[in-house]
Amino acid sequence: MSKNTLHYQVQWGDTDAAGIVFYPNYFRWFDWASHEFLRALGLPLGALLTQYQAQVPIIDAGCRFQIPARFDDLLTIETTVTEVRTHAFRLEHRILRSEERIGTGYEVRGWVHAPVRSDGKLELVTIPDDVRTLLV
């Protein structure tokens, strides 16, 4: 499966009063990593909206925090596609400090028709074959 790697230096604003990265930042980093992963495949958000009339909202997510990250840590975020379904795909993320794994997480993103329906509901649609080929 496809893989992408990013680097991030922990900022002071990422931490809580104890000097540890505040947990919602992991999900922010996962979202950033997912969009950069898609960009690296040639699928930036703008292309999804214009070429495919699609969005990729998170429909499930989780994280396991293993070792605290702290201010000024240099992190590596590895993102891999682990499953491609008819209407959704799963991305798994590993966050490393040097070779030490500090957290793992996942996102399941739906392939949703854009714009959304007039009633505001999201409509899952089939992932196009050319996109499926890029993801696997």
Question: Describe the biggest sheet?
Answer: 5 strands, antiparallel
* CATH H-level homologous superfamily name: Hotdog Thioesterase
Roughly what is the average pLDDT, rounded to an integer? Answer: 94
Structural class: alpha+beta
Sheet-strand content, in percent, reads 35-45%
- Return the CATH topology: Thiol Ester Dehydrase, Chain A
Strand segment count = 7
The top level CATH class name: Alpha Beta
Gyration radius over CA: 16 Å
Number of domains: 1
Q: Per the principal axes of the C-alpha atoms, what is the gross shape?
A: elongated
- Quickly count the helices: 3
The CATH architecture classification is Roll
Question: Would you mind describing this structure in some detail?
Answer:
23% of the residues lie in helices and 38% in strands. The protein is α+β, with helices and mostly antiparallel strands. It has one domain (3-135): Hotdog Thioesterase (Thiol Ester Dehydrase, Chain A). The strands form 2 sheets. Strands 1-4-5-6-3 form a 5-stranded antiparallel sheet, covered by helices on one side. Strands 2-7 form a two-stranded antiparallel ribbon. A hairpin with a 3-residue loop joins strand 4 (74-84) and strand 5 (88-97). The model has no long low-confidence stretch (mean pLDDT 94).
